[in-house]
Amino acid sequence: MRVRARHRLGDFRLDVAFTGPEDGITMLFGPSGAGKSATLAIVAGLVRADEAVVAVGNHVLTDTAARIAVPAERRRIGIVHQDARLFPHLSVERNLTYGWRRAPKAVPGERRIERDAVIEVLAIGHLLDRRPLDLSGGERQRVAIGRALLSQPDLLLLDEPVSALDEARRGEVLSFIAALKRFGLPMLYVTHREDEVRLLGDHLVRIEAGRVVAEGTPAALLPGGLVTGEAVAPGLVRIGSETIAVPGLDAPVGAVVRVSW
Predict the structure, then answer these.
(1) 258, pLDDT greater than 90
(2) 3-state DSSP call for residue 176?
(3) Which of 7, 61, 118, 167 is the most exposed place for a label (fewest CB within 10 A)?
(4) What pTM was estimated for this model as a whole?
(5) Residues 73 and 100 placed together within one structural domain of the fold
């Protein structure tokens, strides 16, 4: 993923340039008003920047100098917003089917991301007959993620997808987002929360006042970072002076894991 954009929005000037890995999660991180969502809108093709280049793999989606501007609906980009934006009159299954039917087919009948795999990873099989109004906020977001994935995107954009959830549901949905890496597609994730960057990020782009001020790994760019812990009992780890519960952790001695509490 390659992004370069210059755009003026009233008195605000956006001037960003960054790259992201072919798979994994690139975190666009910074305070409110820094230009994160504006950048996401340019990548999605929802805003035409004054000057921009947007490319995913070998596919150039925007190049203002070359007069290339692929329409948003043809970009093969999935978007997950702060609110789920599901169709309230459709069941979960029919919301997922909408994403499935929107998928462009390079080869008839061929899809890279399978419906059953999405339902399994997001643990939404028991919700298929229900409607969005009967779901919790976290469940709605999981269905929204599933619908976006089933559209077979080349890039998944997540615009602060857990910011409207309470802490318990936020942590739950973050764990499901981390599991999306099995699908091997690039993701661009907007957040102002440092703990989300630590938990999910493979690559960090820090943006302030419309400009990229740092780019690299979360471990290299964020204070703190790697700490060592000692297992004191099954499911309990001591880090410094604190003992925390880590249920279900199955990792060999010496493994590096991300833990939030």
Answers:
(1) no
(2) helix
(3) 167
(4) 0.83
(5) yes
